[in-house]
Design goal:
The chain has helices at 29-36, 74-80, 82-97, 99-102, 110-114, 118-139, 146-153, 171-176, 253-258, and strands spanning 22-25, 47-49, 55-57, 67-72, 107-109, 163-170, 183-185, 189-191, 199-206, 209-215, 235-237, 239-241. It is an alpha+beta fold and 259 residues long. The longest helix is centred in the middle third of the chain and has 22 residues, at 118-139.
Length: 259
């Protein structure tokens, strides 16, 4: 990153610029505990698929392999972004609870996820994804776009453009583990163009739901289809994507059983 160390010798919090003294989970702790429990004997340590296509095993929810070190300051991590984390936890819990039928749905109804508070909580959910993408960009050694900071620090924001999200069902991961316990991250892609800041795309896997992050990248239509989300919506259409249409789930059974 181009930002210098703060006066304290710590790297700056990428959101506000104060000294970063708080770690952030790469894979949300609530996701790991809900799906795998709190105590993981070696034989039950979950596999996590990395953005480079390889997998690792994580020893516990707070394992160093699962942390972005000194990424944020405590006020940003514990107060400013707490509502975003809580909205994501509600969403993630709903995704896991509906794993048996999610693959057959054509849309996500946020009224079902959040109830009457969906206008506020869908924005908070989007802000969580902004935070997640920003942390991944910093971890890659790149400068996070200024608009990501603006989104997270603007009170009562109602539009996250140029950050956008689309959702899709990964039919291959559904064949591998229809129980919805898989978590993963895709490859971070930088899109150079003529603008002052580059665009980025990335994805996160929650069960067999793919969450596609797009910063300053626009497609007509977006890959795999699905509705584009930048603000409070009651529902979004789901895309369907099968990266390995001829690959049977049985070839991955050993891995799936260990997830």
């Amino acid at each position: 990153m181009s930002d210098p160390l703060s006066a304290s010798g710590s790297p700056p919090c990428w959101i506000c610029g104060d000294p970063a003294d708080s770690d952030e989970h790469k894979f949300k702790r609530s996701d790991m505990v809900t799906r795998y429990g709190t105590n993981w004997p070696p034989v039950q340590q979950p596999f996590v698929f990395r953005g480079d296509g390889r997998w690792i095993r994580i020893q516990g929810p707070n394992s160093g392999q699962n942390l972005y070190r000194d990424m944020l300051c405590k006020p940003c991590n514990n107060a400013r972004t707490k509502p975003f984390d809580l909205a994501y936890e509600r969403f993630s819990t709903w995704v896991l609870a509906n794993a048996a039928t999610l693959c057959d749905r054509t849309e996500i109804d946020f009224g079902e996820v959040f109830g009457d508070s969906y206008p506020e909580e869908t924005i908070q959910l989007l802000c969580y994804f902004v935070k997640s993408l920003g942390c991944r960009i910093v971890d890659a050694g790149a400068e996070p776009p200024s608009a990501l900071r603006r989104i997270l620090t603007t009170p009562n924001i109602i539009d996250t453009t140029p950050f956008r999200v689309t959702f899709g069902i990964n039919d291959f991961w559904h064949r591998v583990d229809p129980s919805g316990h898989i978590v993963g991250k895709g490859e971070l892609i930088r899109w150079p163009d003529s603008s002052a800041e580059a665009g980025f795309s990335w994805s996160e896997t929650l069960g067999y739901l793919e969450i596609y992050h797009w910063y300053d990248v626009v497609w007509h239509p977006f890959p795999y289809g699905g509705d584009v989300m930048t603000g409070p919506l009651r529902s979004v259409r789901l895309a369907h994507y099968d990266p390995f249409p001829s690959e049977p789930a049985a070839t991955m059974a050993g891995v799936a059983d260990s997830l």
